[in-house]
What we know:
Layout: H1 6-15, H2 24-33, H3 40-50, H4 64-73, E1 80-86, E2 92-97, E3 103-111, E4 114-118, E5 122-124, E6 139-142, H5 145-160, E7 166-171, H6 181-192, E8 204-208, H7 212-221, E9 226-230, H8 236-242, H9 245-248, H10 251-265, E10 269-275, H11 283-292, E11 298-304, H12 318-330, E12 335-337, H13 351-356
Amino acid sequence: MEKMTTQETITELSQKPSIYSLQLSELKEWLKEQNEKAFRAEQIFDWLYKKRVSDFAQMSNLSKNLRDMLSEHFTLTTLNTIIKQESADGTIKFLFELHDGYSIETVLMRHDYGNSVCVTTQVGCRIGCTFCASTLGGLKRHLEAGEIVSQVVKVQQALDETEERVSSVVIMGIGEPFDNFDNMLSFLKIINHDQGLNIGARHITVSTSGIIPKIYQFADENMQINFAISLHAPNTELRSRLMPINKAYKLPDLMEAVRYYINKTGRRVSFEYGLFGGVNDQVEHAKELASLIKDVKCHVNLIPVNYVPERDYVRTPRDQIFLFEKTLKDAGVNVTIRREQGSDIDAACGQLRAKERKEETR
């Protein structure tokens, strides 16, 4: 048999979905359609998420016929590690290559309370935030659910070497999660399932730049997932300058959707607020922000931005960051400053990809 070319392999892989894309109920249904017992789904999940095998052939308590069938219909999504950057503070940033040659970033962050993984949901991004490296080159494609799941599995496999565990997940990597809503939702259900990666809902955070219809849809799912809004400005004019999405989904309407989410779920939201020197970081901005969210059950996470060479923004001076925080606290706002991690590597979202894969981000 002739060896397939790389392109032929890519084509074949692209025609088969990832096994990691299937929720347990979907896998059971597929097995029934193949005249296989539904309980085999639990066995397969055990191999995927507890034993974390890299080949269907390793699933030794399945019949050879079933293993062959799985291999014929699905791929065990393999992410090829192009670069693995390690920071002095323990942060690890992975640049993974997908089966079609595109690349994505995944970050492992170490905290006192455990290991957190930041995952990517799209190859590139079409939201166009003027401060973000992820949007350079626009959107190439959505990730399927299994490609998002595989990022967590891949990091967990790295942690297995030191008998550590992924304890939390944040969906804040490259892309807009709510622009890939169905795959993101499936990802959430897979990693949360007790026979999947069994990561508790309250240890998972999803962030959106503000796709309002999907916020209502997410609220109606009534999941106990932590929810964050990338806000970055206290008024419509400034937010539209920083985040073009605000022209389509305006700030007053976004705040109305946030209130709907809170009323529906009973949970608070977090507002992510990146501080850009001389742009949105003055005392008057802090006062305006406090006024905007005064009646909202929320928390503000101030983010001293990482410098991105392709962007013109600079970091707010340290004293100004603390003054901004104090102004919010004096107004009764629950606020924290995000701890800086990975400052000695390409820490900004999309920055490593932009540097190493220029053909994707032009």
